[in-house]
Amino acid sequence: MSDERDEIRQKVDIVSLVSREVALRKTGKNFVGLCPFHPDKNPSMTVNPLTGRYKCWSCGAGGDIFNWVMARQNVDFAEALRILAKDAGIELQQRDPEAAKKRKDRETAMDTALQVFRESLALSRVAQDYLRQREISSDVAKEWELGFAPDQSDTLTNRLIRDGFSLAESKLLFLIDTDSSGGYYDKFRGRLMFPIRDERGSLVAFGGRVIGNGQPKYINSSDTPLFRKSRVLYGMNHAKGPIQESRRALLVEGYLDVIACHSAGIRTAVASLGTALAEEQADLLRRWCDHVVILYDADEAGQKATERALGVLSAVGLQCSVALMPSGQDPDSLLKQQGTAGLLAVAEGSIPPIDFLLKRLGEKYPVTDDRFWAEVPEIVSRAKSELELDRYLMRLAPQYPGISDPIAAVRALRAMVLRKKRELKSGGSPAPSVAPKMQIGMTSREMVVFAALVTTELRREAYMFSRATNLFRSPIAIQLSKAVSEAFPNGPPVGHLAQWIHRIEPESLRDALGEITEDIRGQKVDHRVLIDALQQLKEHAAARVGQELKAGDKAGYFGDLKRRKGLPDSEGSDDVEDLFDGS
């Protein structure tokens, strides 16, 4: 397994891997981006291509390519190994053939279901008529892999049986179900089928829309061994590039809204799979953009969903605005009536969250109603600055009942807002503590030795001295020296740092070694710099020994030091230099 891990580390670039989910910006030799493991408003995660590791200096998350996949995809190490091996084009030795076969069978069953739905679409006049009615061209249907589930109970079931798939496993995948007698039948029937792929493009689920007036209108896959609906946004595999480029996303409600937007050239549209927007979905958006425009339906359900989405998106640090749809419209119908220009006008005319919430409040209560003013303070307390708050207070003041002087009304409203802020603060949970950036705690000379260990042309010489624990004084350098000796007892490491840093234990020492490569970068470490650092370290070590010997027995001290270095008492001299030669 170790050889496979090393080969994968060599072939998988951590910057490319992390960039699939996080927009990274190059700063010097490293890359920085928003940490996906906590609500990060300012980039606090560093990705170091030299060490092959990532580190968030705010929440402390960090590791290598395997840690990244395990954390981001919620899988164990074995599954992360399989995923990365596939990316690297490496065939793993089978250690758990049964588990590997089960996953492969599940993925193949999903592919088979998609093939059945695609074939059925091509043969169904009803489905073809429906696509024409919705103005979905054959090219668009092909791009989005649309299919059709015939209005029969056994079309997919019989195909799965014929191809030898386990029906029990297929039920877990939400492809089929069982009746009261224990018989199996197709889960999707008489529906236009939407394959659901995650942001990496893997087929993980299906959604089906009834053709006609049946109920329920939509059936979506529940969570399965391949799918967590709270972690997937429909269309993200198509939209993530345009979203990353523009740093903006358009959030709509349904499959057809997404397809209509993309077909009209608005390729930043995604949808939350017919469910209320989940925090994990908001996190997914945050990795790729800074601003989300919510473009939900104009009906009451859509507007309530907008309110909920605003809270979820704001909680993860995303900027938001709300596009106000004309009454009775959704993005798909608006595109059909007014074209791309009409939809773009709506999206570009989006309003800030506070404006939307005040508008909703005004539709709920008249401004003469005390209940209106009871809710105003909490809404406007969301203002990002005092200047923004002032603008809202001055706009609301002329309507405030009982106070004719606008200045006095502003003061009264401001006092209400401050009280509300105090209430919210006292009732809220304490802010999470922020982990400070690691302080290496080494002298610059000690750092040079370990930085030279990372440098290929200096590695052999640096290796000898990096293992001379008595050469170092700072605790972290002593620990790292011992860790190098334990990890590489028979010779220096081979290959670039990312291929062998994982052998340094524990994790904190890997972080320290990785940070040394960052902090030392302002100084070119060559042979002369290494020799100078070693000479000074030896002199300081000798001075320490001399001080310690003033109150001790010299022969006993050197004998103990030799024994700790593995030398017999009769070998070598008592010259201090001999005890710090890295041998």
Q: End-to-end distance, in Å?
A: 31 Å
**Count of domain modules:** 5
Main structural class: alpha+beta
Judging from the principal axes of the Cα atoms, what is the shape?
flat
Largest sheet: 5 strands, antiparallel
Compute the number of helices: 25
- Placed side by side, the strands forming the largest sheet appear as 1-2-3-4-5
Average pLDDT value? 84
Helix content: 40-55%
Number of strands: 15
Estimate what percentage of residues fall within beta strands: 5-15%
Q: How much is the radius of gyration in Å? A: 32 Å
Poorly predicted runs of 5 or more residues:
428-439, 564-580
Descriptors:
DNA primase DNAg catalytic core, N-terminal domain, four-stranded antiparallel β-sheet, DNA Primase, Chain A, 5 domains, 583 residues, 51% helix, Dna Topoisomerase Vi A Subunit, Chain: A, domain 2
Question: Would you give an account of this structure?
Answer:
- This protein is an alpha+beta fold and 583 residues long.
- It has 5 domains: 2-88, Zinc finger, CHC2-typedomain (DNA Primase, Chain A); 103-227, Alpha-Beta Complex (DNA primase DNAg catalytic core, N-terminal domain), CATH 3.90.980; 231-351, Dna Topoisomerase Vi A Subunit, Chain: A, domain 2 (3-Layer(aba) Sandwich); 356-427, no CATH class; 444-580.
- Helix content is 51%, strand content 10%.
- It has helices spanning 2-11, 14-19, 65-73, 77-88, 97-123, 125-133, 138-143, 155-162, 167-172, 236-246, 255-263, 279-288, 300-315, 331-348, 353-364, 370-380, 386-396, 406-427, 444-454, 459-466, 475-487, 497-500, 507-519, 527-549, 554-564; strands at 25-27, 30-33, 45-48, 53-56, 62-63, 147-149, 176-178, 184-186, 191-197, 203-210, 218-220, 248-252, 269-271, 291-294, 319-322.
- The protein has a 5-stranded antiparallel β-sheet, sandwiched between helices.
- Helix 13 links the parallel strand 14 (291-294) and strand 15 (319-322).
